[in-house]
Amino acid sequence: MANGALAARSLVDLARSGDAVAFESLVRSRMDATYRLTLAILGDGADAADATQETFVAAWQQLPSLRDLDRFDAWLQRVAVNACRMTLRARGRRRVREIPMTQLGGAEESALGAAPARPDAETLRSTLRHLSLDQRAVLALHHLEGRPVAEVAEILGIPVGTAKSRLFKARSELDKALREERR
């Protein structure tokens, strides 16, 4: 195990034991990545900030139940996806809103998968709003965060086959919406 991984594992272990300073260090090191993930899923800065805060509140409360300290980052992303679901429920929305691409920094390229032509950011924004939270979550975790499909499945708590089919469906829906938008 590398020194960095050992240090992170030690921080997680300390935080799991109730050490608030260790948890604060974990929060600081993962705040930006968590915010980017929630923003990619929710598409609204204020909602993403709320979901990020809820993620870390829930993480602090649930951390004692974390079994595999080496899987902290995947576990935290699952907590973040669940916080996004709760944020949407609290707001009474059925669909997610647009993702401000300027805040994601290049995610418009990676979220496309196999789309044939690269659309402009405005076209992509208008098509992404048609995707469900589950589709957006799988796209964000796989393409924005660079997680392999098996890890996406673990984070979302679904079978690998379901993650693959959701990713395929999300890409297909995005491709279809982009083709319609070009007409």
CATH architecture of the largest domain: Orthogonal Bundle
Query: Low-confidence parts lasting 5 or more residues at pLDDT below 50?
Result: 93-116
**CATH C-level class of the largest domain:** Mainly Alpha
- Range of strand content: under 5%
What does this molecule look like?
With 183 residues, the protein is an all-alpha fold. It folds into 2 domains: 97 residues, Orthogonal Bundle (Rna Polymerase Sigma Factor, Chain: A); 82 residues, Arc Repressor Mutant, subunit A, CATH 1.10.10. Helices cover 73% and strands 0% of the residues. It is built from 10 helices and no strands. Helix 2 crosses helix 8, helix 4 packs across helix 9 and helix 8 crosses helix 9.
Question: Top keywords for this entry?
Answer:
single chain; 183 residues; mainly alpha; Rna Polymerase Sigma Factor, Chain: A; Arc Repressor Mutant, subunit A
Give a brief outline of the structure.
This protein has 183 residues and is mainly α.
Give the secondary structure arrangement, pairings included.
Blueprint (H helix, E strand, L loop, with lengths): L2 H14 L3 H23 L2 H18 L9 H20 L9 H4 L2 H4 L10 H8 L4 H12 L4 H8 L3 H23 L1
Helix pairs in contact: 1-2, 2-3, 2-4, 2-8, 3-4, 4-9, 7-10, 8-9, 8-10, 9-10
